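Input sequence (138 aa), recorded before submission:
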Amino acid sequence: AVVSTQSTGEQLQPQWSQQPDLARNEVALKQKCALLGLMELTFNRASSSRSIPFSEVAAAVKLPVDEVELLVMKAISLNLVRGSIDECDKVVNLTWVQPRVLDLSQIKEMNKRIIEWAESVEKTVADVERQIPELLCN
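Predicted structure, token format:
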């Protein structure tokens, strides 16, 4: 889950602040956690519902809303996600997320989505086949 990614970073902050190299790079570590959170948020949504309000992204990655656009621009520039930003409506439209190693629950979720997609395709094919005589006669 997205929150757990961010929470893990927060939980580990006392440990990394004791390590000089990590402490010097705290901002980069937080940004990486936010980028991973954005990727998780995108992955966990159906591909048909990836228009995400800035406020939802901000809540998921625990950033101020005014930093969401920069985060998404960074993710797009690193080719972690693909999509567009609608500044006027404060919505991110993400069409693709970089594949990564999946845990068992994520694989099960992906399998469920593939089955739903296949059923949707079968329904569409059946609808088109039903309409073929109408289309050929008109």
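Checked by second reader. The mean pLDDT is 84.
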